Amino acid sequence: MTALLIAALVPVIIMTYEVIFTKDRSVLFLGNYPQKLVFIVICYYIFLMGLGLFWLVKQLIFAARLKNEKLKAELMLLKSQVNPHFFFNMLNNLYGWTRKDPERAQEMILKLSDMMRYSIYEGEKETVAVADEISFLKNFIELHKMRYHKPIDIVFINDIEGNQKIIPLLLITLLENAFKHGVEKLRENAFIKMSLTHYKNQINFQIENNYEKTQNRPGIGLKNLKRRLELTYPNRHKLTFSITKNIYKAELILIEL
């Protein structure tokens, strides 16, 4: 940019010199100034303007790419923070199950390996099939059923039949919250009700569970989810929460990419 400014001053310096040292002062009004020189100066400035515009566009493209790379890095960091404590807890439980019920432990290991594989490989993709995300949620539910020594009423209704796509590992945060703040804390009558529907170009996920009123609901997982939605579904999502008595409900609406 400095070079452009210096280059722009060159004709000004030349013309100033001509004005000061020429005997014909009418040069101030370009009256007797050689027409060819005037034409050259005009072309010179047009060239500089084009060069400056090119430099500006190049800088804007660079800034946009840099911003995009930063957003991608932030998104990858947010993805890496999904469910770490869940896998840690399940591995701890497996140790006990290998001694008490080896067959059940084997089943848990298979489901857990499927989930870890999905988190690592599918989680890196920009989008995945909603059907794959549903399978991931079902494995999560089955593992939790094996983990808890109490009856849990879980209902999961979905009408997804097409090839709809979704950002991976979005829905798991809301399901994990329902287990963490509801099922895990309640001694009896714990329930989770979920529905996943598709209408026109919208995917609607609803989940509700009962919980103890003394608990504080917000956590890092929800902040993580909100930020991921801002990055991947800007102006194309709606996340709402509501509480009725001791029932907590979350609803996520996504407009397809």
Written overview of the protein:
The protein is of the alpha+beta class and 257 residues long. The protein folds into 2 domains: 75 residues, no CATH class; 175 residues, Histidine kinase-like ATPase, C-terminal domain (Heat Shock Protein 90, 2-Layer Sandwich), CATH 3.30.565. It is built from 7 helices and 7 strands. A 5-stranded mixed β-sheet has the order 2-4-5-7-6, covered by helices on one side. A two-stranded antiparallel ribbon has the order 1-3. Strand 6 and strand 7 form a beta hairpin. Helix 3 packs antiparallel against helix 4 and helix 4 packs antiparallel against helix 5. About 2% of the residues have low confidence.
In short:
It comes from Flavobacterium sp. CFS9. The chain is of the alpha+beta class.
Q: What are the defining features of this structure?
A:
7 strands; alpha+beta; two-stranded antiparallel ribbon; Heat Shock Protein 90; 257 residues; single chain; 7 helices
Order of helices and strands: HHHHEHEEHEEHEE
Strand content: 15-25%
Q: Report low-confidence residues grouped into runs of 5 or more.
A: 25-30
Within the largest sheet, what's the order of strands? 2-4-5-7-6
How many domains, in number, for the residues? 2
Oligomeric nature of the chains = single chain
Query: What's the level 1 CATH class of the largest domain?
Result: Alpha Beta
- Give the total of beta strands: 7
What's the helical proportion of residues? 55-70%
**Global geometry:** elongated
Q: What do the pLDDT scores average to?
A: 77
Q: Main beta sheet, described?
A: 5 strands, mixed
Class of secondary structure makeup? alpha+beta
CATH topology of the largest domain: Heat Shock Protein 90
What separation lies between the terminal Cα atoms? 40 Å
Rg value = 32 Å
Individual helix count: 7
CATH architecture grouping of the largest domain: 2-Layer Sandwich
Classified in CATH, the superfamily of the largest domain is Histidine kinase-like ATPase, C-terminal domain
